[in-house]
Every structure is written in structure tokens, then in C-alpha cells.
Amino acid sequence: MLHQADFTIPVEIEGQYHNVYVIKRPGVDQFMKRVGELYEVVVFTASVSKYGDPLLDQLDIHNVVHHRLFRESCYNHQGNYVKDLSQVGRDLKETIIIDNSPTSYIFHPKHAVPISSWFSDAHDNELLDLIPVLEDLAGPRVADVSLVLDVSL
Known about the structure:
This protein is of the alpha/beta class and 153 residues long. 23% of the residues lie in helices and 23% in strands. The strands form four sheets. A two-stranded antiparallel sheet has the order 1-2.
């Protein structure tokens, strides 16, 4: 699997550097480019910044990520990292969270677009399949995404 890595990130953990080998999810480059055309992109991750920053430096080849929020911006709720979208400082009517962990968006289920976890399936199309959904949500007919999205149902 290491020979298939798209890039490697050296991460310092307790004074020692370790290489993290990263394989990009299929379609991520096209997905990021299109989402950047439609939205202001804010990456909100439960990862620590010493890993997340270099990862995004490599992943954001189209320079679409406007802001980055890391673990320290998450709320620890019953031992889980929860992403409070009010931390983003944007109008929630226009704010969407795409996440593989339902716990991450328990404060804002009406703003969530769930996505499955990905590990190595080279035939995965989930990111590309989300593009039409995100295009529709960005359209003029949607004044409030929470009236369209509600994963708590």
C-alpha cells in the first residue's frame, strides 16, 4: 500500500518524526475544484493541525480552501469530537457539513450531507456523486439548506 501513496507527510509525534502515507480518495481533485467554484470552502477536521495543515497543503491543488479549523475548534461532547458550525462564523442558512461521522454533526443535523468512510476502494465514486447534490443546494431555489437537509429524520 505504501508504494501507492499519492504523497507522504512527515509528522512529529512526541519528538519523533513519522511518515504518514496518503492515498487520495478517487475524484477528490475534481470534487474540490467544483466545490470551490460553488462555495467558500472551510475545512473543519477533528485532526490536529500538525497533521491537517500539511495534508491540506498537498491536497488543495486548486487553492479552494479559504479557512481551516482543527481539533482545538471541536467541542468535546461525551468523549467525541463535535464540529459546532457556529464556530465557522458564517450564515447557517448557507452552511453545509460533509462528514463521515454522524457524531461530528450532532449539533447541526439539518446541515449535514453524510458521506461514507473511505479506505482504499479505487472504484469509489461518492465524491463525484455528491457534486450534483451540492450544485442543487447552491442554486437560487435553496434559501436555507436546513429546510432541505435533515439527516436526523
